[in-house]
Amino acid sequence: MAAEAPTPPRTRRRRWLRRLAGGLTLLVLLPLALVAWLLLTEAGLRAAARAAEWASDGRIVVEAPEGRLWEAVRIGALRVDTADLRLRIDDFAFAWQPARLAERHVEIDTLAFGAVAFSARPSGEAAADVAPPPAVELPLSFAVRALSVGRLSLFEWVDVPDPDAPAEPFFELHDFSTALASDRRIHRIDTLAVSLPFGELTLTADIDGGELPFALSARGTLVGAYDARDYDIAYSARGNLLELELLIEAQGMGVSGDAALVLTPFEHVPLRRLRAAIGEIDPSAYVEGAPHAALTIAAELESESVDEWRLAGPLRIDNRAPDTLDNGGIPLVSADAALSWSPQAAAAERLELVLPGDGTLTGALDWRPDREGASIGRLTAALELAGIRMQRLDARLPDVRVDGRLDAEGDEAEQHARLDMQVGDARIRADGEFRMAGGEAGEPAFSAAGTLSAFNPAALVPGAPQAELNLSFDTHGVLGEPLAATFEWAFEPSRFEGLALDGRGAIAVEGERLADADVLVTLAGNRLAARGAWGRVEDALAIDIDAPALAALGHGLGGRARVEATVSGTRQLPSGRFQLFAEQLRLPGDLRLDGLNASGHLEAGLDGPVDLSLGASGLGNADGDTWLDSAALVIGGRRSAHRIDLTAASPDDDSLELRLDGALLEGSTAAGDGARSRGCRRADDFRWRSRRRPG
Questions:
Q1: Which of 450, 497, 490, 495 is CA-nearest to residue 469?
Q2: Taking residues 581-586, what's their average pLDDT?
Q3: Span 447-464, pLDDT tens digits
Q4: What span, in angstroms and rounded, lies between the C-alpha atoms of 691 and 688?
């Protein structure tokens, strides 16, 4: 057999080159084929979905993918669940025209989301200022012919969701639809429509993204209803992305209004100016039981700083239909103020309220928030009142004029006030304080002190007696269980119904108990004094009345009287003793009593002794007629068993003798339970004698 001829070197080199070229071609064609398979086949789409789930360790799940990425895709559900994000998209659909890429244009026919649920873990960091982009010009033009979202739901973040208790979204929108287009520089939103919880919103907008400041224009509407009342809002925006003017016109719900805002979205303070006017507002049309009015409100606020929130400007309120409080109205004609607001403070300077009858209230209000956010903050007020007619505010009030000043300051824990008021002819000066936890056990506590001059009760309360009272007072106490309070006063020279009035007093109460009393009052030469306590078994209140000049009091009184008494025991089981002396008495109704003496004592309880002796002489009328020469009443025994003897004699020798035996049984009103008395009475002896001769 003949030997094979050796392969020439040149032939071997050609063969090696062909193999190398084939390998390189295969390396290029295989990825291209893989990409084509992924883009052009449904099997490739499903493989890509499985690869995404595998690569994300199950954090991304694609369910029921259909179609081809090169033309149109439908996905039953897409779920993304990471440590900081949860997203679920149901019924996703996408269709586009990839051939348009050759024209440097992206054409999307459909981009649809059936339902989207989204929640993200809060970052816990304050949002940083965002700088405007240098340009928003795109490398390709694009058009989205139909972009829609059936429902978008936003949820609060929960570390471990409970599958048995699905969370409720804090915000949700429905039926979102729009079309987008861009020629690379001019970007347009065309006929956006969405259903929000508060109405139906539409928007059309375009922006020039060529270079800063990016000219922008927009317009739209918001139509809805609140509390069965329709409203219609039209808005428009003009300017650029760095400074945008937003104009709003609204009507409905019985009012109309307009507003203009200058917005600076990329500055630390995104609001530069706000102007708003609205009216007429009738509060009674919106809140049951609210007062009626016809209010118009106008405000114009401007930012005073570009580095921090600080707005200031005028506010005015006009009321076309002021009315009194008793007639269900608001007694306000107009209100003006220079407002200022920042996160650190809010104030109303140059405040002026004009009230019916040309009364005014002027001054300033200042509010400072609590730095820790634990309370409502601190409010300071300095107010001047001038020419305020009280009856023009409420017809039930007296027709007096009020002038004066009120200074107040306080927060949730403590309030202080100082006032100096002229109410008609009276003047009151006072300082007061309230502390939410001022008591020894943390109860609310109060205190007030001041003076009252030329006070006439008849000027404020119809039918009250005429007076001119001048006094100083001091009161303090604790609003606990029980109430504990002390009130002290001292009269300066005063008049009561034209009579000289003087005195002083101090009273302390603890719940229903009069814990301490020290009172001395003189009126037209007549004196009342009381000292002690009453309300407990061991308490005793001494009362001394010395009235040598009853005639000076008027009202048909006359003569002189003296009473000394001691009241003790409790309200349920009272006890005490007294002595009474009077002579030449004149009583209302032209009654005359020449003399009266009485004494007695009563001990607590049903078995407590009862002792009363009373003697009277010369009962008749002021013309000198005498009906009784004398009368006597004697009661002795105990509450549970006592005897009553009554005797009387007339000038005509008629006489009466009556003896009654009786008792207050257990359960009667004397026992203190408020039940009807079950006392029994028996007449053991009754005598009547008459020595008058027959006419």
A1: 495
A2: 92
A3: 999 999 999 999 888 888
A4: 10
Q: Count of CB atoms within 10 A of residue 53's CB?
A: 16
8 A C-beta contact, residue 331 and residue 388? no
Q: By C-alpha distance, which of 403, 405, 434, 435 is closest to 418? A: 405
C-alpha Rg value of the chain to the nearest Å: 47
Q: Which residues contact 12 (CB under 8 A, 6 or more apart)?
A: none
Q: Is the distance from CB of 658 to CB of 649 less than 8 angstroms?
A: no
Q: Find out whether 317 and 334 touch, Cβ atoms under 8 Å.
A: yes
> If you average pLDDT over every residue of the chain, what do you get?
86
**Which two three-digit tokens encode residue 58?**
């199950």
Q: Are 485 and 515 in contact (CB under 8 A)?
A: no
Burial of 518 (0-12, 13-18, 19+ CB in 10 A): middle
Q: Write out pLDDT tens, residues 82-117.
A: 989 999 999 999 998 988 888 999 999 999 999 999
pLDDT for the residue numbered 29: 45
Token couple for 12:
């071997």
Q: Is the pTM of this model over 0.85?
A: no
Choose the weakest-confidence range: 97-106, 127-136, 614-623: 127-136
Closest CA to 93 of 121, 125, 71, 60: 71
